[in-house]
Amino acid sequence: MLRTIAAAIVVSVALAACAPAEPSAPAGVIGLLLPEAGVARYETSDRPAFEAVVEKRCPECDLLYANAGSSAARQQEQAEAMLARGAEVLVLDAVDTVAAESIVASATRHGADVIAYDRFIDSPDVAAYVSFDSELIGRLQTDAVLAALDAGVGRPPGLLLVHGSATDPNAADLRAGVHRALADADVEILGEFDAPAWSATAAQEWVSGQLTQYPGRVAGVVAANDALAGGAIAALKAAGVDEPVPVSGQDGELSAIQRIVAGDQLMTVAKATDDQARTAAELAVRFLRGETPAAPGTTQGIPSFLLAPTVVWQDDISRVIVRGRVHSVAEICAPAYVDACVGVGLIEGEAE
């Protein structure tokens, strides 16, 4: 049901974004606050998709933009500056969701609406929440790893669970989805780890330690995103693990797609971040006009628009990633991956 609802939201937003702006639409100020520049999607997908919808739906509006560069203090300053410039709606992807509660409080004092974008902010004053269903993603990741496990002989397969930052509500939802999927599974959880700041380095170090503690016992790794998956896979390679170990991921990062092509990573979960941005932009314009769009659900009482993700296996790369214009064949099939790309049919040729 959630997939159907999410798809309907994206379609309706896309249609609205393509419609000409109403001549009588009032002017206003919208602020878009993104958390970091290190993740490419924010500048290459989220921001341009958001700006395109606002331009079409409300060309007379002022759109303010700021990237916090991973600094919660800087994001607070940026939000205050936007409010001082008359921002009536803030779309906020928080660096720190706890610290962001003060941004919501300040916006409320200024009479501005806040749309929590990508990451949930636990404040009753948040007007809406736009993201992907993180609990569903956790279940999809875990189901994929479970399906790839070799039951072995004599004892249940051993799993490592590499979660995201303990301070990120999305990581908590992912974790809940993982444990729900594992509730009736015949596996042994060897260890769990909350990677601080979603650090791939921390994940690699932890997995390395677990491989030493449980030699020959790690049969699969449920990693919350592609960066953590990369850290886990680096640890497996450094430990000389010969047999493929299924490792999950999330985000459809280029390096993860290359690992999937090469057979090092089992799968990833792709999220149409441009659809997410378009949904948030449409909501921002509507809030600016005094409208209250009906949400299909709530998250801790906050009206929520949760989009459905897409599981990407090796066989899905051409359809989902290449045709979906997430990454091109040229990007994926860099020199180090040419033979692997030939092997999976992404490019023609004869593998050596």
From TrEMBL:
<dbReference type="InterPro" id="IPR050555">
    <property type="entry name" value="Bact_Solute-Bind_Prot2"/>
</dbReference>
<feature type="domain" description="Periplasmic binding protein">
    <location>
        <begin position="30"/>
        <end position="291"/>
    </location>
</feature>
<dbReference type="Pfam" id="PF13407">
    <property type="entry name" value="Peripla_BP_4"/>
</dbReference>
<protein>
    <submittedName>
        <fullName>Substrate-binding domain-containing protein</fullName>
    </submittedName>
</protein>
<keyword id="KW-0732">Signal</keyword>
<dbReference type="InterPro" id="IPR028082">
    <property type="entry name" value="Peripla_BP_I"/>
</dbReference>
<feature type="signal peptide">
    <location>
        <begin position="1"/>
        <end position="16"/>
    </location>
</feature>
<dbReference type="InterPro" id="IPR025997">
    <property type="entry name" value="SBP_2_dom"/>
</dbReference>
